[in-house]
Amino acid sequence: MAVTNKLMEVFPKLQEGGGFEFLKIAGSTRSRNLSLLQCPNTGYTLAYLKDPSTTIGQATIYIRPLQQDLPIDSESSGHASGPAISCITCQKEVPFSEMKLHRANCDGTPMQETHREGEGDRCEENDREPPTDRDSVPVRPETSVQSGVEPVVIESGKIDLKELDNDWKIIKEPTLAAQVFKDNLLSEHATGKPLRLKMDVRESEEDRERALLSFYKQQQEWACPLHCTLDGGVGQTLLFEGEPDHLVPAASEVLIESNLFRVAGRMIGHSFLHDGPHVTGLSPAVIHVLFNGDPEMATIVVEDCPDLHIRSIIQMLELEELTQEQKDTVSDLSLSWDLPAVTKTNQRWLHNKLLVHAVIGRTMRQIKQLRKGLKDVMLWPLLTSRPDVVPLLFPKMAGMQFVPQMFLDKITWPVEDSDDEDEGLDIECKCRITGFLRVFIETASSDTLAQLLKFWVGWEMLPSELKVEFSGGTFPSSSTCFETLKLPAHYNTYKDFEEALVAAIDSAHTGFGLV
């Protein structure tokens, strides 16, 4: 208790944190992170902190509140210090140490009231102090990225976006905070040199892919206005592999040496900045490490390992007893990764180490490139200061639910004078086919709608408009760049239409994961 009592005496504000924990610097010079100093059953004691097993030595110990962030500005000091300074907004005399706190809440009322008195009190209604929402806004604490505490201080319904400027850190809803940050960033670069991308559908798939990658390999101000002319599809370079919600960067030396994951980071950030599609289904462990989390503390499950052969070997260590053949198989893998051979005593430990290396160790260079790409687009301050915005950038596929009305509200149905490929269709035929599509959408499950959307536009995010056209083909097709679904008109029954559309959807294996 001596350590706790002394801390509470020196830092009384710590009593409001709901407990505390100690951290220390760990890692090499180039990858230093704060790691948690485990708390023993007896609590932190001097004897424990001096114990050589803690490897503290002369290192600096950092204190972090356990349950909530605490303000560390002048309000926590308990007394003001320094000379009095006049506020340039309200002319009120404020102690030097409290000026920043005063400026955060100053609304200029005294100056305005003095001005109104000089005008002869021409407006009685304005003489009364307006019930501003700032009166109920607490002082914003400095938010710790490691703590993961949501910085809730402002209700979205009580603020004016035009007055927020850089106050995106103190908005409660992450969606609104992200939007304010993006609007500010885009407005700051609105007069910059526009980014121009053009792609011709008549070129080969290789040429289209080369044009896209060349654009994102350039060093540019990525927040500047974007002028994009897409006349064709994109290539199919696999950047992420694995199961939904467990995707990890592909372990390809060619992609790493080509710096393509930095390009992917720019594309992901650029798309988020302009409210475009997202990368869905990324592994939580990869996201944890991407934002400077300790790999050893990441929550990794066996489904995060995309290599099924390696996964099967790691799963052998979950057995109570291993045969000699299984031991040899596991030991071959562990020795190839500079880990010891399996024994009865290290089986559980080796399981965790192999899993960490299979998921994080083999993708660390890709993750670093992704991080650099996000920094290039200048989103890093938002993502590190507001961890609650990260799920908006990398949403889970399981959390994306679609309902029929979401589709029907976006669809632009064919009109009589539309330029379809098959111009010989009568109104009755068009109504029949569009009616089949409506029935399909209204009766489809959320998963089926997600597959339809991916087939329709190339990713699982609804655009502002979904177009429908008629074609003379055998099966339904799509032009993802133009967000257009093309339907043949030769189906006379809904059953035939449904079977053909399901077959077309199941044959599509593209999406934003394939860039």
Q: What's the mean pLDDT score?
A: 76
Low-confidence stretches: 74-78, 109-159, 161-165, 510-515
Helix count, per DSSP? 20
The largest sheet has its strands arranged as: 10-11-13-12
Provide the structure class: alpha/beta
**Oligomeric state of the chains?**
single chain
Distance between the termini: 57 Å
How many E strands?
Answer: 13
Overall geometry: globular
Beta content: 5-15%
> Radius of gyration from the CA trace?
29 Å
What does the largest sheet look like?
Answer: 4 strands, mixed
Characterization of the model:
- The strands form 5 sheets. This protein has a 4-stranded mixed beta sheet with strand order 10-11-13-12, with helices on one face.
- Helix 11 runs antiparallel to helix 13.
- The chain is an alpha/beta fold.
- The protein is 38% helix and 11% strand.
